[in-house]
Write a structure and sequence with these properties.
By secondary structure, this protein is an alpha/beta fold. It has helices at about 1-15, 20-25, 35-45, 50-55, 70-80, 100, 105-110, 185-195, 220-235; strands at about 90, 115-120, 130-135, 150-155, 195-205, 210, 215-220, 235-245, 250, 280-290. The longest helix is centred in the C-terminal third of the chain and has 14 residues, at about 220-235. The model is unreliable at about 1-10 (pLDDT under 50).
């Protein structure tokens, strides 16, 4: 029996809890335990009525999401907008295709019908939960006009026309030109097309100083303005901005983000001493279609 206990203790010492290891090692982004810790953090926030209320009121605690990537503000923002929703949702980019996200009340509601669109099949799917999957380019959505009550596109449009080989996709792109691509506008047009009149479009993307990181581009004010031109033609919208600083994430104003740069964890470009895990500022759009 003593040998069994010793074996268990030794095994525990060699394989500490990933979250504890992540915390004890200084909470360094993308080290062992980071994703488990981050996903738990996100789950706690979107399960909290108080947290969603604070996002609606544009007020979060001062050390919110320290050393964590932009998902910790994007998901709560999106679920604060979706609170109480039921109807047909298109996840344009497959950022809901995770069990800890699909377990949220709004997505478990039998009146909510979720369709996930991504370029190619992923390792996991949840068809047994009644979720539909579409495999297509966002610039050509194979769905009739005005089909969805809500379209959500979280940190996806910045990858359009970029080098997506990092995700295993072989799609022609112009990323190697190092300049801006405006192909994301075709994707926004398609999302607007499949959205019902009175429906809601929710989009998030990295925002600040323009940067071409090959597999994504960070939008600047000029690129956002072009998206606004499309939205103005068909409805009303509200912009929300978040900024990462050493103390964590906070709500921000559009005009303070012009020089903000992203950190690319794949190449090391843009790494700083602030603990940023990826993008340092994000734009979120909530749009209501009127035409």
């Amino acid at each position: 029996m003593k040998k069994i206990f010793k074996y268990i203790i030794d095994k525990f010492k060699k394989s500490p809890d990933p979250i504890n290891e992540y915390i004890q090692n200084g909470r360094v982004p993308w080290t062992r335990g980071y994703l488990i810790y981050r996903n738990k953090y996100i789950t706690d926030q979107i399960n909290s009525v108080e947290s969603l209320r604070m996002f609606n009121q544009k007020s979060i605690e001062s050390d919110y999401g320290q050393n964590l990537d932009e998902r910790v503000v994007e998901y709560p923002y999106l679920f604060s907008c979706l609170h109480g929703f039921n109807g047909k949702i298109l996840d344009a980019g497959s950022t809901f295709n995770y069990e800890f996200i699909l377990n949220q009340a709004v997505l478990c509601n039998p009146k909510t019908k979720l369709t996930i669109l991504t370029y190619a099949p992923e390792k996991k799917s949840f068809t047994q939960r009644g979720i539909s999957y579409l495999y297509s380019d966002l610039r050509d959505i194979p769905i009739r006009d005005e089909f969805f009550d809500c379209v959500v596109s979280q940190s996806t449009i910045e990858h359009i026309d970029m080098d997506n080989s990092i995700y295993g996709y072989d799609i022609s792109n112009s990323a190697n030109e190092k300049g801006k691509s405006y192909e994301y506008l075709f994707a926004i047009r398609e999302m607007l097309r499949v959205l019902k009149k009175g429906g809601r479009l929710l989009i998030t993307f990295p925002f600040g100083k323009f940067e071409n990181h090959e597999f994504f581009q960070q939008f600047d004010d000029e690129m956002l303005a072009k998206a606004e031109e499309l939205l103005n033609e068909m409805g009303e919208y509200e912009l929300t901005f978040f900024k990462y600083e050493q103390s964590g994430w906070r709500f921000a104003a559009r005009d303070e983000l012009g020089n903000v740069k992203s950190y690319n964890p794949h190449t090391g470009r843009g790494r700083g001493e602030d603990g940023a895990a990826h993008c340092r500022s994000v734009c979120c759009i909530e749009f209501i279609k009127q035409k």
